[in-house]
Amino acid sequence: MFNRFTIYFSFEGKQYRGEIQPLQAGAQHRKPTAFQVFLNNVYCGLIRRRDDGWETDSPKCAILVRPISYQIEDWYE
After folding, report:
1. C-alpha to C-alpha distances, 24 to 13, 56, 62, nearest whole angstrom
2. What residues form DSSP beta bridges with 43?
3. What is the rounded CA–CA span in Å between residue 75 and residue 77?
4. What pLDDT does 42 receive?
5. Residues 5-41 as b or e (16 or more Cβ within 10 Å = b)
6. What pLDDT score was predicted for residue 68?
7. In angstroms, how far is CA 63 from the centroid of its own chain?
8. Of 45, 51, 62, 69, which has fewest CB within 10 angstroms of its CB?
9. pLDDT tens for residues 15-60?
10. Is the pLDDT of residue 1 over 80?
């Protein structure tokens, strides 16, 4: 089971604090590939790692895919 973790970052002058909930489905090499994202106490959507990069199912999360993915990658290094 993967544990939820906290992230902090700033983007375009705005501070974000949130939590990432890794999902069990689709794990590869013992690492999750799908994550629920909560930013500033609001559910933002799902973000997924694909072979060719990261994607989201949520328009409100789309502009933040890159900074969120950096936080996730740092967590699993």
Report:
1. 33, 17, 22
2. 38
3. 6
4. 94
5. eebeeeeeeeebebebbbeeeeeeeeebbbbebbbee
6. 97
7. 12
8. 51
9. 999 999 999 887 888 889 999 999 999 999 999 999 889 999 999 8
10. no
Model confidence, pTM: 0.90
- Contacting residues for 30 by C-beta, under 8 A, at least 6 apart: none
Number of domains in the chain: 1
Per DSSP, which regions of the chain are E strands? 5-11, 14-22, 34-39, 42-50, 53-56
68 touches 15 (CB < 8 A): no
Residue with tokens 């990432």: 20
Provide the residue range defining the domain that includes 47.
5-75
What tokens appear for 61 in the block? 């999360």
